[in-house]
Fold this protein.
Amino acid sequence: MTRIAFTASERPEAQEGLLRLVKRYGDSAIEEADVIVALGGDGFMLECFHDHMASGLPVYGMNRGSVGFLMNDYSEVGLPERIAAAEKAVIHPLRMTATDVEGQTHVALAINEVSLLRQTRQAAKLRISIDGRLRLGELSCDGALVSTPAGSTAYNLSAHGPIIPLDARVLALTPISAFRPRRWRGALLAHTAKVTFEILEAAKRPVSAVADNIEVRDVLDVHIAEDREIALNMLFDEGRSLEERVLAEQFSD
């Protein structure tokens, strides 16, 4: 029998499901488990990976939230069999290194995206370099983001960025409400690219940097690169892989 460690968000339906599943299948400690089952929504799935990244365990999500793009359907029947037959998606997170106005360095990982966002009513002004080469001297905008393929259907898609197949080995660089240059729609980058944002007029136009749910305010520069040393394993029901979901999203209404 698969040794399962259950975890759940604070939503009432997630907590109710947790009680039912633990009663039926037991609950192993993380140190003894073969897999983590996370009950909640997509946000909680990301939290689970951040909290238990060091364990190296695969995570099988069950939707007890709202959207649930990264989750499997909730059912109390045949869970070990579903996990045994599940398809695996390997995700490499982005590593963000941000320096704030106090000179402090902040490091965080992002499974979906790293986004830079204006903090006040005034537009942000960003300078963008790729692999040490200046590519855009000044982008006036609400912000910009770098997305992994797994995150390309989340905030990136809402910002009109491209949906990326998981095996494409590229990252999306997407502006958020670009004002100048108005027609710049972003770029697709090799997954090995190192992206640097410099904040222009930082005192007048403060910017925050957000790696998934970790925010650093008043940044001066932000460096982003894929961390190939970390491999996160998501499990999806047979026939409903993450690759299939990303593909289907491109043909949805």
